[in-house]
Structures are given as C-alpha cells and as structure tokens.
Amino acid sequence: MIEAAKQIIEKNWRDRFTIPTSRLYPFQWMWDSGFVALGTSLYNVEKSMMEIESMFSGQWSNGMVPHILFHSESETTYFPNYDFWNSNVNSGAPSYPKSSGITQPPVFGFVLEELYRRHQDNEEVVEFVKRLFPKVVDSHRFLYDYRDVHGEGLFYIYHPWESGRDNSPIWDESLNRIVIKDGDLPYYERRDIQIADASERPTAAQYDRYVYLLELGKSHNYDGKKIAEESPFLIQDCMMNAILIKSNKSLISLGKALGFGVEQLQSWQELSMSNFSKKFWSEELQTFVCYDLRGDKQMLFKEIGGLVALFAEVADSTQAESLATYLQSISDRGYFLCPSFDIDSELFDSKRYWRGPVWPQMNWMISKGLALYGYDTLANQVKSDIIALVDKLGFYEYFESEKEKVDSLSHGYGGSNFSWTASTIINLIAE
Ligand code: GLC
User: Which stretches of the chain drop beneath a pLDDT of 70?
Assistant: First the structure.
C-alpha cells in the first residue's frame, strides 16, 4: 500500500507541488497540500518543503493563504478558474501564481511542527521551518484581523468552500437564505459534473449559491469589512477554529524552540480557547457545533467537524467522553468510522460529498485526537477503518460509510488516485 501511495503522489506531482487528483482538481489546494506534505516528509523531505514553499508563494500581503493556487494558467478544465475569481481586485494578491479569493483550514502550523519534529537534526529543514514560521503566523493574523468580527478569537467563513467540507448539510440553511434573481449571476459552466458522477456532487441550486458568494467576496476585494455586513452566509466553523487552535499551539511550541517571540500567538490562543467551548459546545447534542453569526445561533447538527476539537485538545474530559461514546456507537451500528454527517438525520447520504461518506484526512486528525485523550482502541479503529476502505476500494477521494453497502462495491467515490488518501495511508502506516 505504501508503494502504491508513493506512486500516486509521484504521478500527481507537478514540478513543485502536488495536485489532489488529475482532471477533477488540477491545481494546488491549500489543506490538501498540508496533508500531502505530511506524507512526503516521511520519505522525501525536499519534496515536502517544496510543497509548502509553493503554497506560500501564493500568500497575499494581508496574510491570507488562498484555498487554490492556479499555478498553470493554460489549464482550462476547471471551474471557477483564476479568471473567474479575478483575485487581483485585491492589490495584495500576487499576480503570479494566480489564486482563488478565499482560504481553507489553517493546517500549516501543525504541519510545520510535525516536519520539525521528524527532522530536527536536519539543518536544511530547521532553516526552512524558521523561514516559514513568520509566514504561517501572518496567515493566522489574517484570520484574527479580518475574520473575527466580535473579537472573540473565533474567525468566520463566508463560503462553504473555505470549510473544506464543501457540501455538508450544515451549510444548507445559510445557503437557502440566498435568493437569486434573474441576472444576479454571470454565466458559468460547471466542469465537475462533466468529470465526476453528478450524484456524488453538489446540486445546481447549491452551485449557484456558491457562485453568488464568490461574487459577493469579489465585490469587496475578498477582504473588505462589508463581507461580514452583507453575507447571508456568515459562520464560525468549529472545525476550522479547532484547527487554528491546534496550529497556534504548534507555532507556540516551535517559536519557543527556535527563538521566536510568541506573545502575540499566546494572546490569540488564550482568547480562542476561552471562547471555543462557550460558543461551540451543544449540551443538547453533546458535541461541538458551528455558530451561525447571521442567525445568531448554534447550528445543531452532529457532524464530523465537531470531532476535531479532540485533535486540538480543546475539549474537557467529559466532552471527550461524549464524543468517544458517540463514535463507538456509530461503529457498533455497522458504519465505518468516521461518517461525515449524522447517520440518524434525514439529510444523511452515505454517497454524496460530505453528507455522509468517510474522508481519509479526517480520520488522521480524529485518530490523533482520540489518542491524545487516551482512547487508544477507538483511535486504532479509526485508523484501521480507513486503511481497510482504501485496501478494498482503492485510493479514492472519499468512501462509502455503510458497511453493508461497502461489501458490494469495487471502488470509492469522487476522484481516484487521490493525493491526500495516499498521504494519509503513508502517515497512518508509518505511525
Ligand atoms: C473538495 C473538498 C475540499 C478539498 C478539494 C480538493 O472541494 O471538499 O476539502 O480541498 O476538494 O481536494
């Protein structure tokens, strides 16, 4: 499996970065890139450093790391491409590489720490980590300065694509607030459903709303204050904020080891940690949930993002116990861990994009989180479930979660030869 995984990453390598999969996603994606760098760091650390370096070559002067870098402008098979984003409406966006105008989960703090931990005797890696450190801090500063409307240490997103869980049912209510009238949207043609099975992809109505929010961001240069005032979709995502906390923690410990001042990071971290549970814990559901700033209420769904609090160690022991008990019950009821959405909800769909399937990189974070709280058996279950799925169904983007259905399947869902799947397998087996 490790050899197969390395070959996939090799095939997806494009000079200085790795694409998630050919055809469907032919550019560099932010959090994919972080997970891939974790895998490659185990056998080719030069590649891992190049990957991260390439990502930060697209960083904006406001600190934002864009969710896609369009390194190749001649690749026209993707929508929305660089010309549709037109990110240069923001004067701090580099003219090369072209990029999208939104961000994704801030994984690079913990990625950098892992790289350092694995290679601290390698001077080249230490120098690299020192060089990247301030850039990653700047990417966090962007989230605190531009995305934290109430000064709570919890940042908002205004587009589902920022969350990494693009098509989760959590976003439906906010998306449904968007009323699209004739002439509101520019003409566009989707490419994803020409490549992947439409039943595994978002619907047309959802896609229109994605484009609407993109246009809203563009009209305010992708970082203006007006975005928060106007966006019908304004959400503090519990998963992204947990990842920010995890990455802050990594940067604080890296900063101390490498001689950087960490006061700013510490004060951000204190603020974020003090509000995380207050804002996101739902007593009723016994899990962490997202917060809808537009509707001023918690978004009461059980979904995979809530479990990432374990990875950030921001859950107390009672909360952790509830999350672990919940996961165990899902496993006992015949599901592979971890389904991306509530298996008891009518919105659950074990096949469709983020509405139920299992996602490899999520299992990596959640198994780490469970182990941090001492749930070793369950952590191993989360690892072995994804390894078993990949072994049976191949290196796909995501996987069926119902065990009974898996028996009769011969492949996974979404893109094939997928980089983060390959990288996750390399990491899990090595660990
Ligand atoms: C999809 C996923 C997102 C990922 C991207 C590239 O859009 O929802 O999380 O980054 O594909 O793999």
Answer: none
Q: Spell out where 220-269 has E strands.
A: 235-236
Q: Residue 76 corresponds to which tokens in the numbers above?
A: 């026209």
Compute CA distances 143 → 154, 156, 212, 244, 289, whole Å: 8, 8, 22, 9, 19
Q: Is 388 helix (H, G, I), strand (E, B) or coil?
A: helix
The atom of ligand 1 lying closest to the CA of 20 is 12
What are phi and psi for residue 357, nearest 5 degrees?
-65, 170
Nearest to 238 by CA among 185, 200, 285: 285
pTM metric for this prediction: 0.98
Phi, psi dihedral angles at 295 (to 5 degrees): -90, -5
Give the closest residue to 390 by CA, choosing from 420, 356, 348: 420
Helices then strands (H, E): number in the chain?
18, 9
Task: Calculate ∠ Cα 13-135-258, nearest 5°.
Answer: 105
Instruction: Tell me the backbone φ, ψ of residue 73, rounded to 5 degrees.
Output: -85, -5
CB 49 within 8 A of CB 111: no
Ligand 1 neighbourhood includes 20 CB (under 6 angstroms)? yes
Give me the catalytic one of 152, 397, 400, 402: 397
Angle between helices 317-332 and 376-393 (to 10 degrees): 40
Predicted confidence at residue 192, as pLDDT, reads 86
Which DSSP letter does residue 88 get? G
Angstrom distances, CA of residue 231 to CA of 209, 211, 212, 226, 362: 12, 13, 10, 8, 28
Q: Return the DSSP state at 336.
A: -
C-alpha distances in Å from residue 410, one per residue of 338, 394, 396, 400:
20, 8, 11, 11
Give the pair of three-digit tokens for residue 159: 């587009």
Which runs of E-coded beta strand occur in 100-197? 156-157
Mutate to test the pocket of ligand 1, among 29, 162, 399 (most ligand atoms within 8 A of CB): 29
Instruction: Enter the DSSP assignment of 64.
Output: P
Residues 418 and 416: their CA atoms lie apart, in Å, by 5
The pLDDT score that the predictor gives to residue 198 is 84
| C-beta 31 within 6 A of ligand 1 | yes
